[in-house]
Amino acid sequence: MPHTIPIRAASDRDASDICAIHNAQGVATTASYRLSPGTAAERAAWLARHRREGFPVLVALDGDERVIGFAAYERFRELPGYDPTVEHSVYTAPEHEHEGIGRALMTELIGLARRAGLHAMVGVVDADNKASLAFHEHLGFTICGVLPQVGRKFDRWLDTAVLVRLLDEPPTGAGERRPRS
Ligand SMILES: CC(C)(COP(=O)(O)OP(=O)(O)OC[C@H]1O[C@@H](n2cnc3c(N)ncnc32)[C@H](O)[C@@H]1OP(=O)(O)O)[C@@H](O)C(=O)NCCC(=O)NCCS
């Protein structure tokens, strides 16, 4: 029987753990184009904004109920014609990569998006982040294009891949179970 990873909605007290994971996995690398470490106060404001706008933030927990990963989505772009689409982010703590945590978080997040009646989920991923690209393809995302040199970090230009997962289509990725026919 596969091990079940506990996942719950994030609360205000998770702000510093989420911040620490993102600083380690995103700011220290090109996984995120943020240039300097974030603070717990900024994450608390981010959590409050998601709550106000009705967008979920999920956290994954270890056996001692410590936060070891998070995933969230929010509005893709401002104009109302984009309302059926959201953009997500997902990060696993460095010492817990490859344990199925990202998959568990994204499976739950995609389920919430479907139940909210959303149509598409967009991932914006550094084009050199092979692990994240493979992870997203595994979950049924399609790489739709690469925007060349739209980012700059560590004194070099960065290419950005845009991935889309249509939510009302049957799963195509190996990471989600297909419905029985
Ligand atoms: C990318 C990330 C979110 C994946 O989460 P994870 O918990 O490590 O991934 P999982 O263990 O759930 O992997 C699920 C599947 O994704 C694929 N995958 C994950 N990591 C991979 C890697 N390094 N290389 C190739 N495939 C990978 C595999 O198909 C895997 O399934 P398998 O274990 O049956 O082979 C996580 O590693 C992470 O936070 N990395 C650093 C920050 C980052 O890049 N975040 C994404 C920003 S866009």
TrEMBL record:
Transmembrane segments: none annotated. Residues 5-169 form the N-acetyltransferase domain. Keywords: Acyltransferase, Transferase. One of its GO terms (molecular function) is acyltransferase activity, transferring groups other than amino-acyl groups. It holds the Pfam family Acetyltransf_1. InterPro entries: Acyl_CoA_acyltransferase, GNAT_dom. This is FR47-like protein. It comes from Propionibacterium acidifaciens F0233.
